Every structure is written in structure tokens, then in C-alpha cells.
Amino acid sequence: MKVNQAEFIISAVGPSQYPVDALPEIALAGRSNVGKSSLINRMINRKNLARTSSKPGKTQQLNYYRINSDLYFVDLPGYGYAQVSKTEREKWGKFIEQYLMHREPMKLLLHMIDLRHPPSKDDQAMYAWLKHHGVPICIVATKADKIPKGKWQKHIKIIKETLQADKSDPLVLFSSETGMGKEELWSVIEQRIGY
Ligand code: GDP
């Protein structure tokens, strides 16, 4: 996809603020710091449209970015922040579950996993929940530049095994630093939205 225009639309705190134009939505989920904002910026060739390292505590906002008149990226709040209270976590769960289960324009969830480490318990629980509810997933292994090329396959295998990943889910190796995986990820997205 050629990105001609990319625009921050809204930090939505509830369904009444979601866009009503029915453009396909590509959601991003992952632990805080996994690289969601950096991925959005890389995908749209902007340094700083999506805020990187956003503070924890914003547990109930969906950040919408419109790309051309083709789609939205929807940045879900990161999970797995130790500082966040149990009540906050529960709120996070309800809010995100609502979105993922009932948001009709949501066509694909990019489940982002740091290539360097085996998926955490939170990652595993998230993946299992997504599969259980039939959410279409693309696994994105982030920060690939931080692992030597010769070890990529080993790390990918650990991710797949730990998540018990479905063989039919695409997995894209990605680096926001080098741009690796960008074209491949665009083609997964395009295919999914029938672009
Ligand atoms: P978010 O909390 O998931 O939105 O994560 P950010 O995009 O803010 O990234 C968290 C930190 O990881 C920042 O310091 C980024 O610069 C860094 N980071 C993100 N993606 C990459 C990557 O692909 N390679 C490297 N080396 N660092 C990255």
C-alpha cells in the first residue's frame, strides 16, 4: 500500500467515539513496550505520528489512525504493566474484549510479541483468548534487529511453540529500526481487507 496520508483521529474511550465510516480496522495488541507505536510509525513512514513509549495508566483508550481512505490502525492499550492495579487490569480486559468481540470493521489483530523473549503468561493468555473467540490474527515478532539473523528461526520456533500457535496464522518478522517485514506485513493486511 502506498501511504499518501496518515492522520491521528481520536483516542476513543468508548464505542460511541468509534468511527462510523466502516473502514476496515487493523488492531494492534501486545505488552507495553513491545513496539506498537514504532510499528505504526514505520508502516506509514512517519517518525512520530504514533506516540512511542506512552505512559501506563491509559488503560482505556483506543488510538485510531486513518491511513489514506483505506483503513484504520487501532492501537489497543498495552497489557502486562506490573504497576497497573488489578481493578485496572479487569477494566482493560472488559474494554478490549468488547472491542475485539463486537467491532464489526475489525478485520485483523496484529498480536505483537518481542522476538527476544519467550511469550509471557499474558501473551499466552491473550493468544488463547483470541483463538477461542475466532479473532483473525497475524503474529508480529518485533525488534528482530536485536537478535542475530542466525538465531531468528530458533526464536520464532519458541514463540510458535509457547503460544501453541495455529499453523494457519501468518507470522511476520519485523523491525521498526530497519524496516524489515514492512512490505510483508502490508501484503498480509491488504489480503485480509481485500485491497
Ligand atoms: P509500545 O509501548 O508497544 O507502543 O512500544 P514503543 O513503540 O513505544 O517501543 C518501546 C521501545 O522499544 C522504544 O524505546 C522503541 O524505540 C523500542 N523499539 C520499538 N521497536 C523496535 C525495533 O524494532 N527495534 C529496536 N531496536 N527497538 C525498538
UniProtKB/TrEMBL annotation:
Necessary for normal cell division and for the maintenance of normal septation. Keywords: Cell cycle, Cell division, GTP-binding, Magnesium, Metal-binding, Nucleotide-binding, Septation. This is Probable GTP-binding protein EngB. Belongs to the TRAFAC class TrmE-Era-EngA-EngB-Septin-like GTPase superfamily. EngB GTPase family. Residues 22-195 form the EngB-type G domain. Its cofactor is Mg(2+). GO terms for biological process: division septum assembly. NCBIfam families: GTPase_YsxC (TIGR03598). GO terms for molecular function: GTP binding; metal ion binding. InterPro entries: G_ENGB_dom (IPR030393), GTP-bd (IPR006073), GTP-bd_ribosome_bio_YsxC (IPR019987), P-loop_NTPase (IPR027417). GO terms for cellular component: cytosol.
